[in-house]
TrEMBL record:
<feature type="domain" description="Flagellar hook protein FlgE/F/G-like D1">
    <location>
        <begin position="87"/>
        <end position="148"/>
    </location>
</feature>
<comment type="subunit">
    <text>The basal body constitutes a major portion of the flagellar organelle and consists of five rings (E,L,P,S, and M) mounted on a central rod. The rod consists of about 26 subunits of FlgG in the distal portion, and FlgB, FlgC and FlgF are thought to build up the proximal portion of the rod with about 6 subunits each.</text>
</comment>
<feature type="domain" description="Flagellar basal-body/hook protein C-terminal">
    <location>
        <begin position="202"/>
        <end position="246"/>
    </location>
</feature>
<feature type="domain" description="Flagellar basal body rod protein N-terminal">
    <location>
        <begin position="5"/>
        <end position="35"/>
    </location>
</feature>
<dbReference type="InterPro" id="IPR053967">
    <property type="entry name" value="LlgE_F_G-like_D1"/>
</dbReference>
<keyword id="KW-0282">Flagellum</keyword>
<protein>
    <recommendedName>
        <fullName>Flagellar basal-body rod protein FlgF</fullName>
    </recommendedName>
</protein>
<dbReference type="Pfam" id="PF22692">
    <property type="entry name" value="LlgE_F_G_D1"/>
</dbReference>
<keyword id="KW-0975">Bacterial flagellum</keyword>
<dbReference type="InterPro" id="IPR037925">
    <property type="entry name" value="FlgE/F/G-like"/>
</dbReference>
<dbReference type="Pfam" id="PF00460">
    <property type="entry name" value="Flg_bb_rod"/>
</dbReference>
<feature type="region of interest" description="Disordered">
    <location>
        <begin position="182"/>
        <end position="201"/>
    </location>
</feature>
<dbReference type="InterPro" id="IPR001444">
    <property type="entry name" value="Flag_bb_rod_N"/>
</dbReference>
<dbReference type="InterPro" id="IPR020013">
    <property type="entry name" value="Flagellar_FlgE/F/G"/>
</dbReference>
<feature type="compositionally biased region" description="Polar residues">
    <location>
        <begin position="186"/>
        <end position="201"/>
    </location>
</feature>
<keyword id="KW-0966">Cell projection</keyword>
<dbReference type="Pfam" id="PF06429">
    <property type="entry name" value="Flg_bbr_C"/>
</dbReference>
Amino acid sequence: MDKALYVAMTGARASLQAQGTLSHNLANTDTPGFKEALANTEAFPIKGTGYASRVDALHVDAGFNRRMGAQQITGNPLDLSLQAGNWLAVQAPGANGGEAYTRGAALSITPNGQLVTAGGHPVLDENGNPIAIPPHQAMDIGNDGTISIIPLGEGPQTMANIGRIRVVQADDARLERGLDGLMRNSDPQQPFVQAQGKSLESGQLEGSNVDAAGALVQMIQLQRQYEMQVKVIKHGDDNARSANSLLRLGG
């Protein structure tokens, strides 16, 4: 009986953790470039001294959904939509910084001229340095990530390239999501390479790929699953009490 209680208990815990993942997805249905987090459960035999009779229902991070989100035309030249398999390189938060990746490319320029994402993360150039935009009266981002501006007070003939956004081609299997929502290279010894040719579109955004209706259905299924697991625990406890009563009567 205690084996059934253990499986039901760990299964209920895994159901709650999966609900947390779904809640996170639903909270990001309107976040540009967000990739749906996936959750799964696997059997994990408990090892130790004695007979291996316990199996844990273990919640596992199954990565993220690779499907592209719907394209949204905005007309804003700072809104970028990346080609499939490409990721925008940004400076990770924290003292160490480092390179992280996102597909949420709704960019803006801070008062001091720094190019940042909607989350405030500095966008990196092809050399891995944060991009600073000089004062200008017009700006254009090419399909290869090249940034061109017409300096303030100058004519169209003075348009100049000031840098190129670092957009990398990344193998999805080597990307892992951090607690800050940014992706990182799971094998830093093999850095991602700069994407060549057409790597993005300006004036449009990739939406979140979360299916809100499907996530709500999964949430209901997980809630019912959790309730059944709790019932198994309750019935197991009742059965144990009944068995103990019968043993006392028999004694």
